[in-house]
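Bumping with the actual sequence this time:
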Amino acid sequence: MMKAIDEEVLDQEQDDQEQDDELSAVAMQIILHAGNAKTAADEAFRLAKEEKFKEAYEKIEEAESNGILNAHQAQFEIIQNEARGIPHKPSFLFIHAQDHLMTIKSEVSTTKKMIELYELIVNKRND
């Protein structure tokens, strides 16, 4: 009887470790893709300051479609599992990754608006 309980505990610990590893891997993917989005947004802003608006908008599109979208896709399965009743233990790394993603998503959005405003100013100045 005791041996069966010990095996159950070991199996549960192994399952927990596998979930922790999965969550850590997803968190790192979110951080990576969000970081790529930030880099693209920074490059877009630099291009806008040089009045290269077409290229700036292309970089913003890259930030949104490659960085932000990929980060969201990385976390999608974890969130879907939670919705299906398959919980994960709380993970500070995963929470940090989600916070990182939301911060950068906001930064990309704000950068896009700043580029639009700057383009408007330049166009008015040139009229």
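The tokens above came from a reply further down the thread. The mean pLDDT is 88.
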